[in-house]
Write a structure and sequence with these properties.
By secondary structure, this protein is α+β, with helices and mostly antiparallel strands. It has a single domain, classed as Cyclophilin-like (Cyclophilin). The chain is 12% helix and 28% strand. It contains 2 helices and 10 strands, in the order E-E-H-E-E-E-E-E-E-E-H-E. The strands form 2 sheets. The protein has an 8-stranded antiparallel β-sheet with strand order 5-6-8-7-9-2-1-10. A two-stranded antiparallel sheet has the order 3-4. A hairpin with a 3-residue loop joins strand 5 and strand 6. The chain is globular, with a radius of gyration of 14 Å.
């Protein structure tokens, strides 16, 4: 399975993707990490580098990846728009699992979240496609930042760099 590394303002997380179980979802995330999309904004390739974790809920999850609007409303994917839920074989059974954020069936795009605990009520609704294999303490640091309205961190938590290992 491919491994990716994200350097965030507060540290570094290594992520393993479940490409053997959910290849389309894993590839979408991988290419967004590497900015290998045909899309450009003002001539610059788009992807996760430079976007923020825009939603943080202690004892639940940290959410990011909205490089479109930065607030949880943006959808973009390597498939040109929202894409279908690939399968729900992997479960939200532990902290550190990477899952697609969506607004209902078939609305996957660029947004993802990382579980901070077991979240079995999300099974069958959100596609788990990877896990944090190094950097759970960084996830905990993000989980504990002060937040304001809509669970938005009071200070930006920026994805400074991301790429393959």
């Amino acid at each position: 399975s491919p491994s990716l590394c994200c350097r965030i303002d507060v540290g570094r997380m290594k992520i393993e993707l479940f490409a053997d179980v959910v290849p389309k979802t894993a590839e979408n995330f991988r290419l967004l990490c590497l900015k290998l999309l045909p899309y450009r904004k003002d001539g610059v390739p788009i992807g996760f580098k430079g976007c923020t974790f825009h939603r943080v809920i202690k004892d639940f999850m940290i959410q990011g990846g909205d490089f479109v609007n930065g607030d949880g409303t943006g959808i973009c994917s390597i498939y040109r728009g929202p894409f279908a839920d690939e399968n729900f074989r992997m479960k939200h059974s532990a902290p550190g699992l990477l899952s697609m954020a969506n607004s209902g069936p078939g609305t996957n795009g660029c947004q993802f979240f990382i579980t901070c605990t077991k979240c079995d009520w999300l099974d069958g609704k959100h596609v788990v496609f990877g896990k944090v294999v190094d950097g759970l303490l960084i996830m905990r640091k993000i989980e504990n930042v002060p937040t304001g309205p809509n669970n938005k961190p009071k200070l930006p938590i920026l994805i400074a760099q991301c790429g393959e290992m």
